[in-house]
Amino acid sequence: MFNIRTDLAIEAKEIYENKSKNTIPGVEVYKYKENDVKVTEVKIVNCDGEEAMKKPKGTYLTLDIPEFTPYDLNTMDEVSEVLGKTISSVINLDKSMTALIVGLGNWNVTPDALGPKVVSKVMVTRHLKELVPDQIDENIRPVGAVSPGVLGITGIETGEIIKGIVEKVKPNLVICVDALSSRKTDRVNKTIQIGTSGISPGSGIGNKRMELSEKTLGIPVIAVGVPTVVDAATLANDTIDMVIDDMIDKSQKGGKFYTMLKSLDDEDKLKMIQEVIDPRLGNIIVTPKEVDMVIDSISKVIANGINLALQPALKLNEIERYLN
Prior knowledge:
Layout: H1 9-20, E1 27-34, E2 37-44, H2 47-53, E3 58-64, H3 73-88, E4 99-103, H4 114-119, H5 126-131, E5 143-146, H6 151-154, H7 158-169, E6 173-182, E7 191-195, H8 214-217, E8 221-231, H9 232-250, H10 256-262, H11 266-281, E9 285-286, H12 291-310, H13 316-323
Parallel strand pairs: 4-5, 4-6, 6-8
Antiparallel strand pairs: 1-2, 2-3, 3-7, 7-8, 8-9
Helix pairs in contact: 3-12, 9-11
């Protein structure tokens, strides 16, 4: 499988199948719909699946978000409810257990600020359960939240910070929220992935840090992410593909030029693009120009989804009343 940067399991599956023309061994796929939200469940069940997908064993659920504007509160709430239900399906907590929400990323860089923005909107209750237990509903689960920053700001590995907090606070579950990288531009800011195998901060932009997973922290780790960027070489590759498809449509079928276009190898083409772009422009990633407004909206959707999953005794309007 040629090296196209993506954090999405559904895209890794598509790339493998397009390249090999075969189904992936050790990978199970299920598709269903919740209201207007399409959900794809990709399960990597053995070592063959890990090797083919280049991802650890676990369940990866992808939600395709319907088109919405920042003012379309009904659609945003609908997606939050589906997300909450989806997260609930992969966690196993009773009301006394503590959850820790970790907002990964750099709050100074808009496409990477998803995690910190989500943390600013989650329902934090651990301190209330400890300090004023008589004034809070017994069905409310204790939840803590932290935005640890990035290595370039703190000088400390994010994994080391989270490991120290986990050892001190002793939560029963960690939910990490991070910005991801996509293979396709039409999935940028329009897809939510929930994974049960943890996450490596920075992997989407080729800057892999210490893994956050049950193996490293000793407790279950759920990763929630949205692709906010796409690699420039991948974008150029897609553009060239569209140009080639258009030229093929206009070329005489069976002619030399048609045959040459059809025989272009994906791996060689991508390598050629990277060799042209990297020396001149460096390792560039691309994000939509309206990303600041989108991140504000999508962070609210994810925060409310997490709130619903962790506080099943409350409805969305009750959660929002608490936050306001």
